[in-house]
Structure formats: C-alpha cells, structure tokens
Amino acid sequence: MVARRAVLAGLLATGLAPKATWADAGNPAYVTAALRPDGVYTLCGLGTAGQITFEVDLPARGHAAAAHPIRPQVIAFARRPGTFALAIDCSTGAEIARITAPEGRHFYGHGTFSADGSRLYTTENDFDAARGVIGIWDAERGYTRVGEIASGGIGPHDILRLPGTDTLVVANGGIETHPDSGRAKLNLPTMRPNLSYVSPDGAVLEQLELGADYRMNSIRHLDVAPDGTVAVAMQWQGDPLDAPALLGLHQSGGPITPLAADNADHLELRGYAGSIAFSNDTQLVGISSPRGGVVQVFNTTSGAFVHSIAAPDVCGLSSQFGSGFYFTNGDGDVGCWSAIAQALLLRSHPRSFDNHLIPIAQPIAETILR
Known about the structure:
Elements: H1 2-14, E1 30-35, E2 41-46, E3 52-57, E4 62-67, E5 73-78, E6 84-89, E7 94-100, E8 105-113, E9 119-126, E10 131-138, E11 144-150, E12 156-161, E13 168-172, E14 194-198, E15 204-209, E16 217-224, E17 230-236, E18 247-250, E19 257-259, H2 263-267, E20 275-278, E21 284-289, E22 294-299, E23 305-310, E24 314-319, E25 324-329, E26 333-338, E27 344-348, E28 352-353, E29 358-359, H3 364-369
Antiparallel strand pairs: 1-2, 1-28, 1-29, 2-3, 4-5, 5-6, 6-7, 8-9, 9-10, 10-11, 12-13, 13-14, 14-15, 16-17, 17-18, 18-19, 20-21, 21-22, 22-23, 24-25, 25-26, 26-27
C-alpha cells in the first residue's frame, strides 16, 4: 500500500496521473438538453444506440452545449435570454463552475472552445447597446472572464470554430431583442443578418450579408465541415408561405449558396430551420424543422434534395458515424437515418429533448488508449 501511494504521489508530482476521459462518462457520442416528466431540466449524454449515458440537473431550461476538445467537460447554456452556463464534469456529474453573463448581457445559448481548450467563447447580447458580443473565458482558471470582442452584428446566436484554426464563425441573426420585452423582435423592418468570420483578437476577417430577398432570413445555426465549408440554417421572419431557402453553404471567398427542395417539400419547413448538420462524410447536409416535424437532407455537391424524414417536433440533429444523421425530438425519441437503412427509431425516453444534439469529438489519443 505504501509503495502504491508513493507511485501515485510521484505520478501526481510529474503530471502523469491518469486523467478522466470521455470513457469515464459512459462514452457519450452526443449531449442534449432535456425536460423530465417531474419538471426538472437536465443535460443528457446519449450513446450511439440512443441510450442515456449520464444526466445532470440544470437550474432552468437549457438550449445547446459546448464539449471540451480534450477533457470530459461540457458547458451547458441557458436558453435565451438566460444568463447562466454550467461547466460540468461529465465523468462525475459535478459542477466545475457556474458562468454568469456580465451585467447588461445575456447568453444566446451557444459557445465554442479554442482548439487547445484553454478558452471558451460565448455569444452574448449587449442589450442596451443593441450589439452582439463574444465573451472570452479562461477554461484553465475556473472559467473566469478574460475579455470580449464584437461579434460583427446584432443577435449573435450560434458560434463555431474553423477546423485547425482559432478563427470563429458567427451566425449574427440580425434580430434585436431586450429582456424587458421578453422574446419580442424589435427591429424586423431594418434587420440585417450576417455570417462573420472573426479572429480571437476581434478582427473581422470576412463578412457576408444576404441579398435583399433574404434580408428577413435570420442566420441562426451553423455546422462546419473538416475542409472549412460552413452550413447555415435560417429562420424566416416573414410569411412562411413566402420563405426563401433556409439552408445555405459557404466557402471562404465565395457567396452563400442557398439549397432548397421543390416548393411543396420546402413549404413543409414552415419558414423555420431549427438545427443543421453535415453527415460524417460531408456528402450530405440536413436541416430540421420542429414546426414542420421534418428533417430535410441535401447533397452537398449537387445541392439536390435527397430525402425528407418525418418526426413530430424534431429539432436536435447531428452526424451519424457514416453517411447519415441522428435526430431527437420533443417526444423523447432518438432516431437515425442513412441512405441505406432509412429512418430508424433507436430509443424513446420519458424526456422532452430540446433544440440541439451536440456531437462530442473525442481526441484520437484517448480513443487509441481505450
């Protein structure tokens, strides 16, 4: 026993002691916010068979999350206009830190980490100034706030990082809101959504606004392919019958290319795209519509409409390990779809899953060690 303690003490002193990995959290492939039948809001880990691998209570309704690129930690964000975000150790369920938006700000429900995991970036509303902000938090010092930069627009909702870089991609939805007005949209006649590429020091590297016909198409959610192609999901603020394409693809230096199904299928979206995801092989891209109860899948090369998946109140969407997608809905269903297997219900839980299904990209070294 003395010898073992001496070995462990030596490992701790050298920094070589075993560290928690995603295996200690049950190897979840995804995380999602949920509501239990007892009225408690939670954050759930989901495995590839649709099973719940862990569950942690939240103080209020959650929206999306950000998974740490190395450690089994997740930041669970409050739904707009919430002001909390919880840093959770998914291997133990312990709360590492409670992040609170600064006075005069609220979160938009999304965030992302730097490539090395040392910084957390959060989308925020400086609501009295009607401007978007990206908060910067030090993940190595208990998620203390260390700075902020402008988002490049109003209403920054989703934020991701370009692979292999620390360039941030921001969906500036263009909609002004204020907590005193609840979730009311205050500037629809003048809204100007944009997609912004921002460096960690705040420089706007590239910015794209939609054309006049798309001015009321709020850019809300993002996914990024390994080659840097960005997929955007939009929410039309006009008559749903007049909604233009709600899905677009962008490569640096070019325009946003819209993708839409023929009119009858397009109208099923009801002007609202809730989540967006590339397939794992990036040959396909999908958008979900909880209002329409449908997921629509497109070919990323040709832009052709491929398939429609019917599921009530479906919103959570993420890549499957292959050419397909996982999806969740408000009825507690976890399903998957591929061109070969078609739609398959994996599990149904007594939960109401919320808007997003966040994939966990586990480090290669950790996978090899297991």
